[in-house]
TrEMBL record:
PANTHER family named among the record's database cross-references: GLYCEROL KINASE, SUGAR KINASE
EC class name: transferase
Protein name, as recorded: glycerol kinase
Pathway(s) the chain acts in: Polyol metabolism; glycerol degradation via glycerol kinase pathway; sn-glycerol 3-phosphate from glycerol: step 1/1
Domain Carbohydrate kinase FGGY N-terminal: 8-262
Pfam families per UniProt: FGGY_C (PF02782), FGGY_N (PF00370)
Carbohydrate kinase FGGY C-terminal domain boundaries: 271-465
Organism field: Heracleum sosnowskyi
Keywords for this protein: ATP-binding, Glycerol metabolism, Kinase, Nucleotide-binding, Transferase
Gene3D superfamilies named in the record: 3.30.420.40
E.C. code: 2.7.1.30
Length: 518
């Protein structure tokens, strides 16, 4: 379909902000709006969001983006064909079916309050920490939704009662948004997609349905769970009370899966998204690989009810861009995130300083929830520029750790020839960060012209479902490579090797620090 009056919307609900972006038929942005929302930290290691505030941020973004596009002469009201949704994964909401009200704040993916539940399950279940890996692809970890659901069952009276009376609905943020967009208490659709479901620790990766054995072992009733759909199909229509009444919701993907589609990652290709955390996924095609090196098996995407399922290996890094936010908000070393590049460029090395941002433990490939952040190698010579550069390097070292594990697990499916890493996300505007990443990897890093590939991927999925784009158009990488920026490594191999050894030493210093006295 090639028509200048055809538009696709993308609702991108992230960890710190919500955006609505409107694309034309050439996938060019014609209108967008972004709103930050409140982060709640009730206790050390706990992170929550207000689900109602998230809904209002979505409403505001839709309204403002349409106003901006219309002001620029685009007839979006008439030409909008569908919207796609992409969201922060694992973040858990339980709400009342009868009132529509959340029964507790959303528990965010990086929250670690479920540590004791994890330890208990590891002792009780036959397979220990890896009990669900074979069916669901995920180890028992504070990261995943099932553990957050159990915490809500055990600690929130309103949730307990609603589950007992059949009034409770569970969902990740996509489910919460879709239920409200399609009517809420007046017939709202309770659905999720395969990518978000694959991050709950409750979906069987082979059947793409809720795993009855896992539900039974964890004591989670199937009645609270949403229906699982593909990433690209007409799910329902937006109802009254929203700015785009009657428009189909035709795409839904977790944020990292949407980025894979936005980056057109085919079998054997990898991407890294740098946001609050960093998330590296390698498309393994129709082959589900069980990692022996600390990675997760997950669904990459399924672009239609009858489309083949693409699987992926994933390495998740809890703290990436969040470390820069900490430099700004926690230490006051910078006034804005954009200042980090200038500050870190004032020195040509970290001066022997290594920073490991294990604020809430370490995810892949270490999986140590007893780890805490360290900054080592500090001398009287150290200044704030060295610290800023060490923070940037910490993101790149963590990505390198994950990719090393990926190469070991997936050598059979990786693309032949020189490995290159596709990158996206807000932090990739930092050219110094991208050069450091190429140097630490020893491989090229490719940044697309449009770094916000998460929103683009959700738009592609929706457009595919309503015939705006064909799959071969989306996955044709020839044109996009022409307008990409490539960062090639310039660091000598011997120096890279020594830096990696020092990084591993720094990581080892983070272990067993969770019980340090206040």
């Amino acid at each position: 379909m090639s028509n200048s009056n055809v538009f696709i919307g993308s609702l991108d609900q992230g960890t710190t902000s919500t955006r609505f972006i409107i694309y034309d038929h050439n996938a060019k942005v014609v209108g967008s709006h972004q709103v930050e929302f409140t982060q709640f930290y009730p206790q050390a290691g706990w992170v929550e969001h207000d689900p109602t505030e998230i809904l209002e941020s979505a409403r505001t973004c839709m309204t403002k983006a349409i106003e901006k596009a219309t002001a620029d002469g685009h007839d979006v009201e008439k030409g909008l064909k569908a919207i796609g949704i992409t969201n922060q994964r694992e973040t858990t909401v339980i709400w009342s079916k009868s009132t529509g009200a959340p029964l507790h704040n959303a528990i965010v993916w990086m929250d670690v309050r479920t540590t004791s539940i994890c330890r208990k399950l590891e002792k009780e279940l036959e397979g220990g920490r890896t009990h669900f890996v074979e069916t669901c692809g995920l180890p028992i970890s504070t990261y995943f939704s099932a553990l957050k659901v159990l915490w809500l069952f055990e600690n929130v009276e309103k949730v307990k009662k609603a589950v007992e009376t059949g009034d409770a609905l569970f969902g990740t943020i996509d489910s919460w948004l879709i239920w409200n967009l399609t009517g809420g208490v007046d017939g709202g659709l309770h659905v999720t997609d395969v990518s978000n479901a694959s991050r709950t620790m409750l979906m069987n990766l082979k059947t793409l349905d809720w795993d009855k054995k896992a539900l039974g072992e964890l004591g989670i009733p199937s009645g609270i769970l949403p229906k699982i759909v593909s990433n690209s199909e007409i799910i329902g229509k937006v109802t009254k009370g929203w700015p785009i009444v009657g428009i189909p919701i035709a795409g839904c993907l977790g944020d990292q899966h949407a980025a894979m589609v936005g980056q057109a990652c085919g079998k054997g290709e990898a991407k890294s998204t740098y946001g609050t955390g960093a998330f590296i996924l390698l498309n393994t095609g129709d082959q589900m690989i069980n990692s022996t090196n600390g990675l997760l098996s997950t669904v990459a995407f399924k672009l239609g009810p009858n489309a083949p399922t693409n699987y992926a290996l994933e390495g998740s890094i809890a703290i990436a861009g969040a470390a820069v936010q900490w430099l700004r908000d926690g230490l006051g070393l910078i006034g804005s995130a954009s200042e980090t590049e200038k500050l870190a460029s004032e020195v040509d090395s970290t001066g022997g300083v290594y920073f490991v941002p294990a604020f809430n433990g370490l995810f892949a490939p270490w999986w140590r929830d007893d780890a805490r952040g360290v900054c080592i190698g500090i001398t009287r010579f150290t200044n704030k520029a060295h610290i800023a550069r060490a923070v940037l390097e910490s993101m790149c070292f963590q990505v390198k750790d994950v990719l090393d594990s990926m190469h070991k697990d997936a050598s059979e499916v990786e693309s032949k020839g020189k490995f290159l890493l596709r990158v996206d996300g807000g932090a990739t505007v930092n050219n110094l960060l991208m050069q450091i990443q190429a140097d630490i990897l020893g491989n090229p890093v490719v940044r697309p012209a449009d770094i916000e590939t998460t929103a683009l991927g959700a738009a592609y999925a929706a457009g595919l479902a309503v015939g705006v784009w064909k799959e071969e158009e989306i996955f044709s990488s020839v044109e996009r490579m022409k307008i990409s920026t490539t960062f090639n490594p310039i660091l000598e191999d011997e120096k890279r090797k020594k830096k990696l050894e020092s990084w591993c030493k720094a990581v080892s210093r983070t272990f067993d620090l969770a019980d340090l006295s206040l």
